[in-house]
Amino acid sequence: MNNHYQLLVIGGGPAGLAAATTAAERGVTCALLDEQPTPGGQIYRAIEAIPEQRAKLLGPEYLRGRKLVNEFRQSAAEYFPETQVWSIDKEHQAGLLHNHQAHFITADQIIIASGAMERPVPFPGWTLPGVMQAGAGQILFKSAGIVPDNGVVLAGSGPLLLLLAWQYLHAGVEIRVLLDVTPFANHLQALPELPRALLAYRYLSKGIAYQLELKRAGIPIMFGVSDLTAEGNERLQRVRFSHAGKRKSIVSELLLTHFGVIPHIWLTQAAGCKHRWDNSQQCWRPELDDWGNTDIEGILVAGDGAGIYGARAAEHAGRLAGLQVLSALNVISRQERDQLSRKDRKRLHEERHIRPFLEAYFHLPDNLLATPGNDTIVCRCEEVTAGQIREAVAAGHENSNQVKFFTRCGMGPCQGRQCANAVAHIVADARGKSVAETGLFRGRPPVSPLTLGQLAQLPKKGTA
Amino acid sequence: MSSDVIIIGGGLMGASTALQLAMRGCRCIVLEKDSPGRHSSGVSAGGLRQLNRDPAEIPLTVEAAKMWRNIEALLDSDCDARFPGQLRIAENAADMEKLERRAALVRSLGYQHEEMIDRDELYRLVPALSPHCVGGLICREDGYARPYHALTAFRRKAQAQGAEFRSDTKVHSLRKKSGAWHVRTSQGIFNAPILVNCAGAWAKAIAGMLDEPVPLTPKALMLMVTERLPHFVDPVMGAASRKLSFKQMQNGTLIIGGALLAKLDFAREKTEIDWLRLTESAATVLRFFPQLKNVRIVRAWAGIEAFMPDNIPVISASQTCSNAYHAFGFSAHGFQLSPVIGRILSELILDGRSTLPIEPCHIGRFNNMEKQ
Ligand SMILES: Cc1cc2nc3c(=O)[nH]c(=O)nc-3n(C[C@H](O)[C@H](O)[C@H](O)COP(=O)(O)OP(=O)(O)OC[C@H]3O[C@@H](n4cnc5c(N)ncnc54)[C@H](O)[C@@H]3O)c2cc1C
Which domain holds residue A158? Predict the structure, then answer.
């Protein structure tokens, strides 16, 4: 690893791969870092190693990733797997952990392509062993072929939940029930967005196909579920919920939940980029121009870290960011950049047709996000409950950060990633304000943990 | 909006002053541009230290220590205060000599709170310490508390006594009209006969509005905190000849500081951690506790603090305007003093003089310096 690159790309998903390949093909020195051991990101995880049969189960979209990874491998971009970024600043300096050694590198341009994370939603019992986010279940499946063998309850909302159910069905997992918490009212809210969404019929038809197949296989699907509760001594034993006006329950040792995904903003936050609250996507996202430029010169974002549009959109956005970098580095002119970007821009636009519909359809109800019962743990690291957060608000702590100071919620090892949004929703609800006003936890470095020993040995002048 | 006293700044000094004035029947309003405790007061290391103070501060710190011992009676909250002592470690004979000179100075001023300890006593107090140390200077009454909790306790008690706090209310300008201060803020005009400047790192701007220049430098101090560890050390530790402040909090986390500065963009109120400087802190900690090598750092942050050239605060009536008072410039050690500062200001304002010796903290001490 050198001390300096013209371009540093953080994240090896579709956006990062496309960006790095685009830039490296034109001779720009480029390093791509990723926490994972292999390229592909969340969606194309372990794509190079996966046996043909499991690849088929994962669907045709997954194979698309192979091409991206191959092109990246053939480019001159340097690839550093299992590398964490623990700091990044507006001077384009990034603190890395590579082979357990901390050091700094700098770059003329940085593209942050760190993707999305599942939206954590606290509900009673969500911290019990046996309750996991569906993404964790998917990771086990993709990288190790591990599937639950004692049956599973799936609960939540959003396209990934359906996809996971479909994948599990084909892998022979017993799905006890699929509990969909999407409110019925959303169907109406989403209707006006439908015509535009039809332009992206591919997604709609895929969703409908999944649903039909699950039905045909006899998997019980319940819609309009609410009051989800996980119960058990020491670990999960049963799942309770309300459906069609009745309180129901089902025995299970495993509950996988999924409530949609939100941008991974911890790096852009660390760099000091501006963010805004997006009501439609119910998340914070960095403020960007059409090329992915943040408000800090030379720091760009591409892919789901910029806002949730999915894998294909990420790939196009990655190429656009790559072209923008080439033009910023004077490798190509602005005219060339505009010319070369036409196709990707058009495709990106098409990919986005479906989003307003999906966002309205899968909009999570406020009562799920903002009104967990007082006993529900919100910050799992520091074991702070919704009730303690409300008490802090009642004692005059007016925003997320004050509540954090007072209750310690968000001060644990996860750096508030699991509770930042929930706290903002609860504080906003308790004060009768908007989430945007309540604010996001201020980012505190390191972005990923670093030991005292690693810090003490940080070379004074960047030497890798 | 009118009251008896307007206090600018909702940090510890503003809140403590509001409490003491309210307890004596004054109607106070505290104007805070952000939220209470947003700056130094909410993010400090929480050290309650009499050890190694400037002689000018000793009478104040000793009085403050008495108040901290009894803080629950004042604030209805114990602020999670603990008193396991604060310690400066000597690593060699030269360090020991330096600490002995200090102990002698404190004794010569008539105080007994700083005490030399030998190697045996040091390792009895801190068995986990690396074996190379030779002794130390200790103040056994010292300790720490939780800063934001303390700030909240001051605020809530002051509110219970009738004081008002306004967040998001930034003071833009001051004017005196027929004996009353007219304070123009981002949320309208406030009036009161008496004005107090507790604006921390921004106090120079407020003093400037009173035509009273002060050599205050804002600086951002860094701290870092680790994951939770099983309890292994009691006293708060510093070193005789190294930059270090080290303690294990009630919940097992370690707070590590040492007066290291972050990069500061004061106009935008933005701080950026300077990791290369923090390597020094990490190395110092590992020098004393090599067994902590694999402990993870969870968070680092910086707070914006007011520093004076002589590192002691300004606690004083204004020289240029009547009915205006200052308390700022605590130079990284104001937390411990905070209960007594409110009392001193309430005495200055209501009795015309303080019962504690505050002459060395007078704003006039910079008069010649500013003219140069
Ligand atoms: C990292 C760090 C660690 C520390 N550790 C310790 C320690 O261990 N022990 C110890 O004793 N001390 C410590 N200190 C020092 C201590 O925190 C401060 O001395 C003390 O909190 C100062 O309080 P204050 O009220 O003067 O200032 P502040 O807390 O800064 O309050 C001033 C307030 O005034 C407001 N303000 C400014 N201008 C305006 C305006 N125009 N209009 C309205 N409002 C305005 C500001 O927003 C601010 O909230 C530490 C400080 C830092 C930064």
Answer: 120-257
